[in-house]
Amino acid sequence: MFNNEPVSKDLMRQMNRSLVLNTIRVHGPISRAQIARETGLSAATVSALSSDLIKQGLIFYKEDGDSSGGRPPVLLSLDPSGGYVIGIKLMEDHLIAALTNLEAKVVDSKNFPFGNTTPEKVIEEIYKGIDYLLENNQIPREKLYGLGVGLAGIVDQDTGILRHSPIFGWQGLPIGKMIQEHLQVPVFIDNDVNTVTLTEKWFGIAQDKDHFITVTIGRGVGMGIVSNGRLYRGKGGAGELGHVVIDPRGAKCSCGKFGCLETYIADPGLMEQAKATTELNDKVNEIDDLRSLAEAGNKKACEIYALAGEMLGRALANLQNLFDPQMIILSGEGVKAQALFVDSMFEAINAHTMPGMGADGEIHIDELEDLAWARGAAGLVLREVFESPIFK
Asked: In terms of Cα–Cα distance, which of 92, 87, 108 is closest to 199?
């Protein structure tokens, strides 16, 4: 049944505030009159809300607009320095901390190594990262809007509980609450691929896309799904593309199953294939060795990457058939080797995508540097700043 209760005045005001703020973020510098035309709100409502946003330091008067003879209009723009957020990307033996402004532009960043991976020790390094970025950039804590943390694993984003971390072996850890106890700002935790996906939606290449998928390859294989403009989470763990079984008779995966997609295209899987190949066994000690051999024309190394591209292409074709997205973003450190697998990938996509599906879709390939993951984590906080309360 539909809920016919009227929307409260406070909620309506918050929704209108978000509408005005995002119109300025996307179209600014922009006049109040233009905002009213874009949003359909009255001039009085736009004026009142924009005055509040100026007081809060989120927007400011930027410059006068062109005039046809009368008084030039006053233009409003998002104030990038009106507030700051910090994003943390947790890696196997270090974390990357990034300070961004309200436009998701990185102001400063630093790596913090840790040998001990107990939750307490890692959280201690997170605090060091926060203190360093604020002090090094002379930013008062009251201008910090929040902290976002991204890591590989299954996260209950609503409660901040990490259900499972394949890297650290943490299970059922209330990491959000543990961090929050020592901070006076909101803390948001999510799967790292989701953080990158959200940042692409709010500030990146997918701002005008309501249906798109992000697939990352590297140490593992991750996926983020945006449907109808919203991140799809399922019950909390949606997106484990890397553990879709391609061949149950294939190699054993780290998850315990056999023939998962990761065993064909993730770095550990590629290394296992190389170690199992007599001609490569003593030549490959890390993934860069395998890539270099393939780039130099080594036949066996090229075959491994060609098979990886074929399996990846099949997976992307399945995503096309299932979701019919406007765009698939392929990224991650594994994209460094794209020249070695992209041909077989597109061949498989064309061979396995249903006729008529994916015709207007776009596949965008973009290598992600480590810093981009931390920026993505910062996007968790920025989403809270800009997203309409109707979705919360």
From this structure: 87
